[in-house]
What does this fold into?
Amino acid sequence: MSHLFPNYARDSIDLVDGSGSYVYDQQGNRYLDFMSGIAVSNLGHKHPVVTKALADQADKIWHSSNLYSSNLQESLAEKLTAEKDYLAFFCNSGTEANEAAIKLARKATGRPNILSFEQSFHGRTYGALSATGQPALQEGFFPIVEGFNYLPYNQLEPLKEHLNENVAAVMLEVIQGEGGIVPAEEKWLQAVERLCKENGSLLIIDEIQTGLGRTGTFFAFEQYQIEPDIITIAKALANGIPVGAMLGKATLGTAFGPGSHGTTFGGNNLAMNVANAVVSEIGQPNFLNSVVEKGNFLMEALCSMKEHSSKVLDIRGKGLMVGIELDTPETLQWAIQELKKQNLLAIKAGKNVLRLLPPLTISQEELADGITIIHSVLNQS
Ligand SMILES: *Cc1c(COP(=O)(O)O)cnc(C)c1O
It folds into this structure.
């Protein structure tokens, strides 16, 4: 009998080891990892640089406290803001990064309301849950935080109707992840940015799943020529060590003065040393180019499959964040189990989308192996 709350629908396998693009269960079965712990292990498992960063710091000081200065936080902030005029705040998870973003937006603008989108996912704590446009996730947890409204994604008219002098911020994912791998349309996102500016509302971009190179650029929004006011990241930032960050325009700094917001663990030395190593790795010449190339290779292979499989309705995504929309939720559950039988781990998104998130470090050969397995499963009748 399990002593855990049943709040997750868990598969029976227990992953106890990993190396590169492979993970191993307790029985020693090897799986090709096409989910990266939900876009966390972007550099694969046991990456030598990342492992060394953790071990080096483990031998020094694990935790000091935000009552003292931190060179590790400063150097990570400098890398993340890349000479742009942003400041960083470090926390421990995605949902916390979004909490910080929501609080900063309200305080900096003096306005109460946040607009987000249907099928979005921003996290499980009350502020982030209140921003999440999925009624099923809020059910039973009312009252949620006031001042949140959900609009249809990729549509401009509803946004125009709701933008007024009470709107502190518009918050969105560049590619909706949990919602089903739905990319923003370029024209729409650029119009959202312009409308926010005109209205004095901040644009918060949740890059928690799309960030850290997942889509072929460091942040996915870079592919849209926009400049968010606030950016949130987490998941892959320390490749599995819990960490989150909020980046905001330096002009917002005065709204977060001493004592306004904080966390005990946030910016912890272990997480910071690992995150510094992760961000440096992603910044290596050609790293992001290789993600683009592998993404193109994956997308082309899957699109040719679409023509041969009656089960595949659509294929969407960017870089190594790809969704295969299947005809029914039952097909999706069946496909995930069949892939597992062939030693490939992939997960769901939305109701009927098979989500592929291989490590960004995956080799061409491993990627091709995965594609062969996916072909063999989805082309079965
Ligand atoms: C996973 C995720 C979150 C929440 O992150 P946690 O670390 O689970 O709190 C928020 N936004 C997006 C887009 C995510 O994918």
Observations:
- The first strand starts at residue 15 and ends at 19.
- The first helix runs from residue 36 to 39.
